[in-house]
């Protein structure tokens, strides 16, 4: 009897455990109600960045692995057939999170009810074109899209401008969507931020995930200032300053900065095409952190509407270090800025002031 009792007891316990697991799983499946889908607009969706971006959104890289999405894709009439092909591929990929796809050349249809807008489409600078010619084209595009977003997008729609000149395109969009809160219109400098993280990780031979709090100040252009003065690396002995670990101020103040500034041109030279994959990935990073929040103790770089912080003129779309919580970004305050950094920050602000003036002259 003792022998059989010693066997029966664990069997009974295992049976109870199994029944408990079944009950818990049943309750979880009952409570685990699927979220309402979020509608994401991608303009220029038939282009290289758009083609790389839409599957990332559909797979959950932008809004989370449990968040259903509806994707609206917009492009110009000459790209309509290519856009149709992208829609076909999205359908063929059978993404579980993708609830619907709209592919259109109609800006009103594209903007209806969107919660997140990723503005990839724009007019690229071509050989022989003057800056004002490019700006005139983009002012016209972003003026029309701003109007459509204001009238047809969800009231709390978050906008990310990717197309260059990204900062000034975002500013134009803001001007022509006056009912949009300024905090809902941003531009992409996360690509530059990620490039800076990558350069530090390669220099120190550490994993990029162990590097944090680099900052991109200013314009998404060759005047941007990649700053490591507050960046740290996670080591076995705790977090250590990047500048101390690199121990090469000459590299950090020259080659590191220019490598990040000119990385896009270097990729075009090597690939004979622009950096589509990394741009799409960083757009997902930007929106994900904005919507879901940045990890505690970590900031990221976003082009946002300046409130005068760090002496940057108010009214520019300028890249700052920001933290995000509950769908809102906040500029990191109180960082110590040395003379070298201040000069770099002011120089890129000066370029943005000039771009703003040029854009407004195109409006007239």
Write the layout of secondary structure elements.
Layout: H1 2-31, E1 38-43, H2 48-59, E2 69-74, H3 80-93, E3 98-104, H4 107-111, E4 116-119, H5 131-152, E5 158-161, H6 166-175, E6 185-187, H7 190-204, E7 211-212, E8 215-217, E9 225-227, E10 232-235, E11 238-241, H8 242-246, H9 249-253, H10 255-261, H11 263-271, H12 276-292, E12 300-305, E13 317-325, E14 328-331, H13 339-363
Parallel strand pairs: 1-2, 1-4, 2-3, 4-5, 5-6
Antiparallel strand pairs: 7-10, 8-9, 10-11, 12-13, 13-14
Describe the structure concisely:
Belongs to the LDH/MDH superfamily. MDH type 2 family. This protein has 364 residues and is of the alpha/beta class.
Q: How would you characterize the overall build of this protein?
A:
With 364 residues, the protein is α/β, with parallel strands linked by helices. It has helices spanning 2-31, 48-59, 80-93, 107-111, 131-152, 166-175, 190-204, 242-246, 249-253, 255-261, 263-271, 276-292, 339-363, and strands spanning 38-43, 69-74, 98-104, 116-119, 158-161, 185-187, 211-212, 215-217, 225-227, 232-235, 238-241, 300-305, 317-325, 328-331. Helix content is 48%, strand content 18%. The strands form four sheets. It has a six-stranded parallel sheet with strand order 3-2-1-4-5-6. A three-stranded antiparallel sheet has the order 7-10-11. Strands 12-13-14 form a three-stranded antiparallel sheet. Mean pLDDT is 92; it is low at 27-31. One of its GO terms (biological process) is tricarboxylic acid cycle.
């Amino acid at each position: 009897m003792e022998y059989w009792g010693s066997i029966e007891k664990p069997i009974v316990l295992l049976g109870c455990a199994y029944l408990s697991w079944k009950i818990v799983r049943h309750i979880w499946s009952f409570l685990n109600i699927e979220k309402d889908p979020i509608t994401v607009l991608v303009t220029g969706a038939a282009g290289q960045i758009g083609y790389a971006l839409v599957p990332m959104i559909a797979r959950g890289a932008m809004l989370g692995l449990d968040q259903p999405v509806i994707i609206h894709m917009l492009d110009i009439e000459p790209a309509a057939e290519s856009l149709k092909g992208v829609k076909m591929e999205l359908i063929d990929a059978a993404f579980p999170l993708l609830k619907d796809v709209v592919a259109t050349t109609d800006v009103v249809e594209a903007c209806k009810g969107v919660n997140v807008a990723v503005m990839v489409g724009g007019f690229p600078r071509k050989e022989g074109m003057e800056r004002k010619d490019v700006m005139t084209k983009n002012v016209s595009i972003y003026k029309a899209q701003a109007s459509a977003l204001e009238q047809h997008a969800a009231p709390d729609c978050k906008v990310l401008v990717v197309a260059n000149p990204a900062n000034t395109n975002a500013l134009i969009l803001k001007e022509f969507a006056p009912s949009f809160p300024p905090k809902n219109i941003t531009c992409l400098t996360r690509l530059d931020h990620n490039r800076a993280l990558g350069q530090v990780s390669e220099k120190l031979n550490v994993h990029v995930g162990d590097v944090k709090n680099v900052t991109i100040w200013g314009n998404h252009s060759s005047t941007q200032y990649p700053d490591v003065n507050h960046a740290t690396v996670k080591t076995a002995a705790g977090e250590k300053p990047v500048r101390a670990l690199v121990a090469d101020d000459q590299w950090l103040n020259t080659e590191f900065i220019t490598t990040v500034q000119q990385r896009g041109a270097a990729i075009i030279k090597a690939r004979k095409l622009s950096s589509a994959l990394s741009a799409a990935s960083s757009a997902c990073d930007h929106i994900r952190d904005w919507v879901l929040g940045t990890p505690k103790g970590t900031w990221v770089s976003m082009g946002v509407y300046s409130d005068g912080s760090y002496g940057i003129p108010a009214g520019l779309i300028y890249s700052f270090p920001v933290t995000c919580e509950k769908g809102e970004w906040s500029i990191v305050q109180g960082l110590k800025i040395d003379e070298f950094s201040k000069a770099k920050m002011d120089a890129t602000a000066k370029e943005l002031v000039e771009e703003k003036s040029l854009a407004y002259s195109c409006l007239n």
